[in-house]
Design a protein that fits this description.
Largest sheet: 5 strands, antiparallel
Shape: globular
Helix content: 10-25%
Strand order of the largest sheet: 4-3-2-1-5
Structural class: alpha+beta
Number of strands: 5
Radius of gyration: 12 Å
Length: 81
């Protein structure tokens, strides 16, 4: 579990450095629910996402636990839109 957390932090750092829009999936039972935006800050246990709406508008900031992330996507159709 510790290694998974370290790998997730590395992925989040890379996404932040590249200023990628990312889809963050936290509910393995409902893959239609996800957060979309830019990684703003990363801590040891949490990260802050600058959330955007499906229309590309700023929608505030959301603090999430790193260990709640099931999957990250940066090159999908939704992110490109």
């Amino acid at each position: 579990m510790m290694e998974e957390g370290v790998n997730m932090i590395k992925e989040l750092i890379k996404i932040k450095e590249n200023n990628n829009i990312v889809s963050i999936f936290c509910d393995e039972d409902d893959t239609s629910m996800f957060l979309e935006g830019y990684i703003y800050a990363i801590g040891r246990q949490d990260f802050l996402i600058k959330h955007i709406t499906p229309h590309g508008l700023a929608d505030g900031y959301i603090l999430k636990k790193i260990d709640s992330v099931m999957h990250l996507e940066i090159s999908g159709q939704y992110e490109k839109k």
